[in-house]
Design a protein that fits this description.
- The protein has five helices and ten strands.
- It has 176 residues and is an alpha+beta fold.
- The protein has a single domain (34-164), classed as Nucleoside Triphosphate Pyrophosphohydrolase.
- The strands form three sheets. A four-stranded mixed sheet has the order 7-3-9-8, with helices on both faces. Strands 4, 5, 6 and 10 form a four-stranded antiparallel sheet that branches. Strands 1-2 form a two-stranded antiparallel sheet.
- A hairpin with a 2-residue loop joins strand 5 and strand 6.
- The protein is globular, with a radius of gyration of 21 Å.
- The N and C termini lie far apart (77 Å).
Length: 176
């Protein structure tokens, strides 16, 4: 009977579904994935991207960020777009939800936007010579050559560029 209790105790005190993913990192397989809201903003057949330059790294991401507690992904998308780019956006459709190892990225298309593109938020505060955040407009050819993260975003961004007419920057939703 004592052996049975010991076995039961060992089972009950085992770590909860921890899976080793790399040599230095242990991730709880049951932990919820972080959620990131991102937005595709197009103007004059160019897409707005955040270029990240760090030692040994140079890549692009869509403007966006982490969904805060109590926020919907749509709310986070609008907030992050304004914080990072200075633009007011009106959301269009959600284009996709890309699931990675540690997070899910929800991508929306901006139906309209207005304002002046200007880096802001935490990105502006963290800007250093060895940690840069740059907002850049890329056309279709530049986008194809850019190192976009995650890579699986590329077809969605290219499709959005191909299907979207030239958008003005009028501060009115849907042609008002």
């Amino acid at each position: 009977m004592l052996r049975l209790w010991r076995k039961l105790w060992r089972l009950l005190t085992l770590p909860v579904h921890k899976a080793k993913t790399t040599a230095n990192e242990v991730v709880d397989a049951c932990a919820p994935k972080r959620q990131r809201a991102a937005i595709i903003i197009i103007e004059q057949q160019r897409i707005l991207l955040m270029r990240r330059i760090k030692p040994g790294k140079d890549y692009y991401v869509l403007p966006g960020g982490t969904v805060k507690p109590g926020e919907t992904v749509a709310m986070a998308c609008v907030r992050e777009a304004e914080e990072e780019t200075g633009l007011h956006v009106w959301l269009g459709d959600q284009l996709c939800a890309l699931e990675g190892r540690r997070r899910i990225e929800y991508v929306f298309l901006a139906r309209r936007h207005c304002g002046t593109v200007q880096l802001g938020g935490p990105e502006l505060c963290r800007m250093q010579p060895d940690n840069q955040y740059l907002l850049e407009w890329l056309n279709q050819e530049q986008l194809r050559r850019a190192k976009l993260k995650p890579k699986s975003l590329l077809p969605y961004c290219l499709a959005a560029l191909q299907q979207t007419d030239v958008h003005g920057s009028a501060c009115q939703p849907d042609g008002g």
